[in-house]
Design brief:
Structural class: alpha/beta
Radius of gyration: 20 Å
CATH topology: Rossmann fold
Shape: globular
Keywords: Signal
Largest sheet: 9 strands, mixed
Number of helices: 12
CATH superfamily: Alpha/Beta hydrolase fold, catalytic domain
Helix content: 25-40%
InterPro entries: AB_hydrolase_fold, Lipase_secreted
Strand order of the largest sheet: 3-4-5-7-6-8-9-10-11
Number of strands: 11
Pfam families: LIP (PF03583)
Number of domains: 1
Organism: Nocardia fusca
Protein name: Lipase family protein
Strand content: 15-25%
Length: about 400
């Protein structure tokens, strides 16, 4: 049997992508509708700013789950996968009675969406079940005096699947909040954390920091349930019906947005595929999952023939942390379920072994959970304890 025309990566709450046959493009990527709030738009002089420069600050309404906290939206300059300037955003909550210099946590939420309405600053004010998984832990850190930032690490085009982009945006978001005087975090110990797709952005931030933001001192990064090798995920999902196919399709759309000349999706979709693409173009995670549940790649591609598409595979490799030859220079805490059915465990284990061999101060934890999302909750207490130890300046444990 020949391979399917489309190879998708799928992960519930994580990252997915598609590789399609390279044919002359007859249709380009479909981008999200612009946010009607002009605050999110890039300024005309964007290119004159440096990565991390603040482009705007707005005070947002109070958030019920963060009692007493002041919430602000920060717009800043970042960089896309081609090295071009982009405008990005992060939402930061400052606790009541905040002490200048108290710790700063940048938490990369698993956004896994395609529409501008899915930005964290919007979802904080709606019924977002995915955010509710982490809100109690973030509220705990606020109660202890920490500032908590949640960057929109998918970028202005909501490029789901582009993990390297997420790492750059994460680093620039920390640069930005440290520049805002009223936040009083310029001298704060800063630390990163994230799970699943947010763990991918966190992992990329950790490995890119020495080259992309060498001046940025970070106390460490906690990475949970991250898809460390997108190639492995492509091989794992194949073309059979899958409950997370919606995220696979969404990530194909997202990667085409970020790499339109290298990952051609739209030109290789049949009418059903184009209809699904159009229906998904502005949806958030749960609606994407519902729309694509049980789907498979061959239903939406133009034909059964297949051959390797080197440019597309290169994109997948470039966004795979396991295949990146550099390692973090900061302490790392990594946790996952050894029975997670959606994230390739071998890729996590291989990455951990390589980082340990290179001298990374790495602590790993396997949590007893039989599926992907519950492992996020199971590992949270240990993650929080590790974060607190790092910002207190305690020596990072090594338990590879």
């Amino acid at each position: 049997m020949t391979r399917p025309l489309v190879r998708f990566l799928g992960a519930l709450g994580g990252v997915a992508c598609a590789l399609l046959v390279a044919t002359p493009a007859t249709a380009g990527p479909i981008y999200p509708a612009p946010d009607p709030d002009r605050f999110y738009a890039a300024p005309a002089d964007l290119a004159a700013h440096r990565p991390g420069d603040v482009l705007g600050v707005r005070v947002l309404p109070p958030v019920a789950v963060f009692p007493g906290a002041t919430v602000r939206l920060i717009k800043f300059r970042s960089t896309d996968s081609r090295g071009a300037p982009i405008a990005a955003t992060t939402t930061i909550a400052t606790p009541a009675g905040h002490r200048p210099g108290a710790p700063l946590l940048s938490y990369q939420h698993f956004i896994n969406s395609l529409g501008t309405d899915c930005a964290v600053s919007h979802r904080l004010y709606g019924a977002d079940l995915n955010l509710s998984v982490i809100m109690p832990a973030l509220g705990t850190m606020l109660a202890r005096g920490w500032s908590v930032a949640l960057p929109d690490h998918l970028g202005p085009h909501f490029a789901l699947g582009a993990g390297r982009l997420g790492g750059q945006i994460t680093l620039d978001s920390v640069r930005a909040v440290k520049q805002v005087p009223e936040l009083a975090v310029a001298d704060s110990p800063a630390i990163l954390a994230g799970y699943s797709g947010g763990g991918l952005a966190t992992a990329w931030a950790a490995v890119l920091q020495p080259s992309y933001a060498p001046e940025l001192r970070l106390a460490g990064a906690a990475i949970g349930g991250a898809p460390m090798n997108l190639v492995s995920m492509a091989e794992g999902l194949g073309h059979n019906p899958h409950p997370a196919f919606g995220l696979a399709m969404a990530a194909a759309i997202g990667l085409e947005r970020e790499y339109p000349d290298r990952v051609q999706v739209s030109a290789n979709l049949n009418p059903r595929g184009l209809a699904m693409r159009d229906a998904m173009a502005n949806l958030c995670t749960n609606d994407i999952l519902a729309l694509g549940a049980g789907g498979s790649a061959h239903e939406f591609a133009t034909g059964p023939a297949v051959f390797e598409q080197p440019e597309a595979w290169d994109v997948v490799k470039e966004n795979s942390v396991e295949l990146y030859d550099r390692v973090p220079e900061m302490p790392i805490f990594e946790w996952h379920s050894p029975t997670d059915p959606l994230v390739p465990i071998n890729a996590i284990d291989n990455t951990n072994r390589r980082w340990c061999a290179a001298g990374v101060r790495l602590q790993t934890l396997q949590v007893p959970s039989f599926e992907h999302l519950s492992a996020a909750v199971a590992g949270t207490p240990a993650m929080l304890a590790w974060l607190e130890g790092r910002v207190r300046g305690e020596p990072a444990p090594v338990a590879c």
